[in-house]
Amino acid sequence: MSDKLENLFLNVIEQNQQKLFRICSVYSKNSEDAKDLLQEVLINIWKSLPSFKSKSSIETWVYRITLNTCLRFRSNDIKKQKRFISTDDLSDFGIQMETENEDQKEKLVQLRNCLNILNKGDKAIISLYLEKLPYKEISNITGLTENNVAVKIKRIKKKLLNCINKTL
Asked: Where in the chain are the domains?
């Protein structure tokens, strides 16, 4: 592979590795599995890089590969997987990530449990939303219209809030 592609790969990974890891975490039962899944994602990005055609931003393309890899991983073991989320902003769900408050910790546990009941499409959309991607980019990654993304996010948030409140 050329030095140009290698540099592009290294730059993209350096800028997006934490985001990719958090997405992988949604589809993994623990941190070690998330790391393994991230390695699969990186391998798939590396293998596919020569075919990148610049029809979208490199970040959108990388997120699409990440989601596709994660969805394949999940479908291989859908019944056994317990995914978790690690993100800086869960304020839409009334949750502070860094907290000593036991109520907040319980809400985070409940959110993680509630994420497990989402279908793969909803999980993909909410994981991108939690990464603070704009609706337009989520639309490009998922192939849905921006309006459809907005409606789905609203419904997913409502479903998650109901699930959290029901279990508390």
From this structure: 3-167
